[in-house]
Amino acid sequence: MLGGMAQTTETPSAGPPDGRAPLPPRRPRPRRTPRVHRAWFVAAVTFVTIIGAAAFASLPGLLIEPLHREFDWSRGTIGFAVSVNLALYGLTAPFAAALMDRFGIRRIVAVALSVIALGSVLTVWMTAAWQLVLLWGVLVGLGSGSMALAFAATVTNRWFTARRGLVTGILTAAGASGQLVFLPLLSWLVEQHGWRPAAVTVGLAALAVVPFVWLLLRDHPADVGLAPYGGEYADKPAPVTGAARRAVSVLFKAARTGPFWLLAGTFAICGASTNGLVKTHFVPAAHDHGMPVTAAAGLLAVIGVFDVVGTIASGWFTDRFEARRLLAVYYALRGISLLFLPVLLAPAVHPPMLFFIVFYGLDWVATVPPTIALCREHYGEDSAIVFGWVLASHQVGAAVVAFAGGVARDVFGSYDVVWYASGALCAAAALMALVIRRPRASGASR
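and the corresponding structure tokens:
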């Protein structure tokens, strides 16, 4: 035995002068699976990358009041720029997933981060509302859309066979972690130094992640001679050409199935009740009730803390329980919490508000792991692109409410009607989740 491995008997050659038995010819040792699988390092790089890209998502709610004061733009105008960003974030995702199949994850993500940095930094010199829409809405929307959850779904599908639900939960939580890291810093910068240093900070955060992506991220386990975690080795597939055509063809194919529309509908409501409403309008709504901006931003950061816990737990649950039932529970609980929010807003933070923050934080994006799992169950190899289109509906819902929330505040002088409407929509989403039927035995929905 040599190094714990049996040696194959070879035809002996002339022995050494001392008469000892000849040694067999030296052969390369087979590559062993590392104690910590490379997939976990790829997941860690993906986590950090999403955190860097998530910095911008922390900013819109903090800038509504400063931009309104400096440029005298209406909240509806600012909300429109946010809605363009959110819509493009979603509509870009399926094409980004297809482009990753064509050009590789690493290239697409590096370009996306650079575009986010460019759009964020150039806002420092804007003087007109159309420039806000172009830079903040279009450029950052396209860049962040390429960094959307379809990125996490692609990494999970390629690098993991086991623990997919858990990994999806961890990578989804990265967005909340970015919110946790950047919100207190950005709110302090806005309060002490104005909104421009905050915008530059966001751009630099996205740019700082690019070297990590380029040096450490790999497109496929076969690139480093490994099997996916918990799976069998497979050669790297050839690049898929016609990324845009494939994204559209997958959409048309999925659109002929019922589960797609139910998933898209529930996820549109998810986006409306989180990114479109709370992330964009919670800080100005709390400020309307006399709460300092830094305190309101701190509450959003606390939501980020519990979102990490809730999303990872949701991934664990998704590996063990029926995904559609989990979705129904999540949406029902979210709707109930939003109905109580208008009576909880006050000048100071009090225990009932903290209870809402903890409860809502646990549910913030807990819907993502079961939604990805249902896409995977129904649409197989196309699931990342299908989820990209489902995510597009999420962002369209968010965009509508980001704009409508600003208009409602301008018209009614309060956000109350938007909170109540979102609570009712969440109840509808819970019912929609329950009627998603199980996939056929073949794994494809028809």
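(Above: one complete record from the training split.) DSSP finds 17 helices and no strands in the chain.
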